[in-house]
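Protein modeling request. Please complete all fields; requests missing the sequence field cannot be processed.
Requester role: graduate student
Desired output: 3D structure, token encoding
Chains: 1
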Amino acid sequence: MFDHIGIGASNLEASKTFFVKALAPLGVTVVMEVPDGVGLGRDHKPSFWLGASTVKCGPLHLAFTAETRSQVDDFYRRAMAAGGRDNGPPGLRPQYHPHYYGAFVIGPDGHNVEAVCHRPEV
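Delivered output (122 residues):
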């Protein structure tokens, strides 16, 4: 449905560092930088934009697709090491569906950042 999405970052460098480290296990990298902004994504497509902002918006829930449960685990470890705060360790969330495996971390601007794998464990 979405081509890309952008959010404001109160400290662009801190947010860039956090998301680059946290999303690396999912194959997400910096693919474009412009003045006051950075685009992250896969395969050279910036799908997630961070823009320098002095206006703080309410917390968002940002869920990123993981191909495997081990990627979710790695996301959680790296996000926590990058300064995230725990908001739900890796595990099944059967209230969503039987194979929903996710982890949740609060990022630099208070957003709930999730990695989720919808596949059964192989």
